[in-house]
Amino acid sequence: MSSHKEAPAISTDPVADNTDVYAFVSPDRPETVTLIANFSPFEDPAGGPNFDEFGDDVLYEIHIDNNGDGLPEITYQFRFNTVNTIPNTFLYNVGTIESIDSKNWNRRQFATVTRVSNGGGKDGSSQVLGSNLPCPPCNIGPLSTPNYAALAEQAIHTLPGGCKLFTGQRAEGFYVDIGAIFDLGDLRPFQNLHIGSSMPAAPGVNGPKAKNIHSIALQVPACDLTANGRTPTSVTDPNSTIGVYATAGRQRSRMLEADGTSTNSGPFVQVSRLGNPLFNEVLVPISKKDFFNSQAPVNDKQFAADVATPELSQLLPVLYPGVFPNLAALNASGKPRADLLAILLTGIPAGIVPGFQNVTGNGTVQADMLRLNMAIPPTLQSPSNLGLIGMDPAGFPNGRRVFDDVTTIELRALAGATYALVDKTYTPTPPQAPSPRASPPATPTSPPTTPCTTCPASPTWAPRTAATSTPTTTPPPPTWTPPPRRTGHRPRRQPAQHQRRQGHRRHRPGHHRRPRRSHRPRLPGPCNRNRHRRQHARYARHQRRPLPGRAMTAQHASTPVGHTHGHTHGQTYGPSQDGSVMVDIGGNVGALIIHTPPGLHGAEIDISPAGHAEATTHVAVRERSGPGPTRYAAVFPSLTAGPTRSGTRTHALSPR
């Protein structure tokens, strides 16, 4: 989730919980910027009789940093007050709500918005832009709110200076497979590759799809946000980029009265904060999350170490063995993630991506904020929901649009997709592996989106400039159908010696277990020899069979390949007669799925470039469940074309 229930304390205070922040150049009015801050996660549409609303005792704020010092130069403050117009009924409404001022609507809420310059300091000034601005009702249902779109339209207010404001309930636009991703990092489209999973691959599920949030949406002329008071026109002008974040605050003291009311007093204290999506959610340790919510962005240098060595990046190669080999090598090198530090804490400086920059100030202050270069025009034709890595510079991390797929973007960045921008020698893992979900549908008010699977998969990648931006859509990889399973084979039970526990005989009816006199390994006597012969005979038919693949040649060696996993292997080369499937995933890279008989379940298949035995990649044969019969296969997510050496490894039994 972007920031839903991201910290222990704010999880108990939903009306102050900042869930998402958006900032983008308005497609309908390119001379303006749209700022959105959402609060109150997971609202149930059928949440009566007391439907969700803003907190009257909460100070909601959207902050603008236009000089890169990590402190707000401009702040928009929002306060709400609620009125019961029909106090003697328990109902939210007593009839159809036909307009924003309907007499049938009982529980009504009004907003006041104030612009504060210089952060409200002694030399600052404040201006009330609007007061007692009615919010729309919640969308109750067809009997109470039969024409909800018209009600919402009435709640869009024009403010002085060319600003527009909407405050009220909206459908949740953030897409995340929350049920899976917090289940030990289950990335559902390829959960079958998870180290602890026996589940088949499945499409992602939009967890918040049927939920609502409360949204503050403000459209402001761009010239009101810059340090020089001018509308930005040059991408390279430092005044073109602003930092945006939102907060919620409560007064320091709250007293509960005996009559059921409460009294609040004292200065406001910040209890929730959000800039970049998923920052506090995924990067900050749980022991620091409440502390992070209390801090100003100017102090974010203290969280830079969590960005430079993100925990999730360390976990991905462990949870998905063989899926992220390049990320594993990057983690092992110990290099700090300079790409993530730039994207999340300083902005991307000029010279990294041709024709693009969104650094704030001189880039020396590390602060978690959305950074928007307002001189980059909105993409009106086929925008990519992958933003900058989808060759659309008008999207995240250049600000954030409602339809930007920030979960996929940030997971790909954490998986190393953006590291090649700062280290040209690094080759990212191909983009087809770390894709946690399908593309989200656009909201009704958003321009149509084109799902895009492109990503910086090579050191030469660079997004196109805004003037020539035509995001491309890569067709999905070819589908494949596994060969038919051979009949007459059943999965074998583990040999008896694998079922024994050290120091005990196998229990059989009529026999009592008794400990051995010695725990030393037994030497293989005649009975044990026969048992070993039977075990070796089971794998004999799998010897001397070449494994097919892309441009593969059978270059078999006569001696076992070196192996260091802490257990003994017997090495045999050659084939799985049940066949294999190659999928061309672009360039000189292919994916290999080797379909094997059940007898190879648990065996390992290794593949290495011819003449380079030290670069061996090995994958275990696993049981694959799905619609139809159970199959057994080894999956190599990416292999480079060229002569390849292959073989199978079977576990040799140690003498008892």
Write a structural description.
The protein has 656 residues and is α+β, with helices and mostly antiparallel strands. It contains 11 helices and 20 strands. The chain has helices spanning 148-154, 178-181, 279-283, 289-294, 304-308, 311-319, 325-333, 338-346, 406-414, 496-499, 526-540; strands at 18-25, 32-43, 59-65, 74-84, 107-117, 126-134, 157-159, 163-171, 212-221, 241-256, 262-274, 370-373, 569-572, 580-584, 589-596, 604-609, 617-620, 622-624, 631-640, 644-651. The strands form 4 sheets. Strands 3, 4, 5, 6, 10, 11 and 12 form a 7-stranded antiparallel sheet that branches. α6 packs across α7 (325-333). The longest helix has 15 residues, at 526-540. 39% of the residues are buried.
What is the strand and helix layout of this fold?
Blueprint: E1 18-25, E2 32-43, E3 59-65, E4 74-84, E5 107-117, E6 126-134, H1 148-154, E7 157-159, E8 163-171, H2 178-181, E9 212-221, E10 241-256, E11 262-274, H3 279-283, H4 289-294, H5 304-308, H6 311-319, H7 325-333, H8 338-346, E12 370-373, H9 406-414, H10 496-499, H11 526-540, E13 569-572, E14 580-584, E15 589-596, E16 604-609, E17 617-620, E18 622-624, E19 631-640, E20 644-651
Helix pairs in contact: 6-7
Name its key features:
single chain, 656 residues, alpha+beta, 7-stranded antiparallel β-sheet, 5-stranded antiparallel β-sheet, 12% helix, disordered C terminus
Task: Give me a quick take on this structure.
With about 650 residues, the chain is an alpha+beta fold. It has 11 helices and 20 strands.
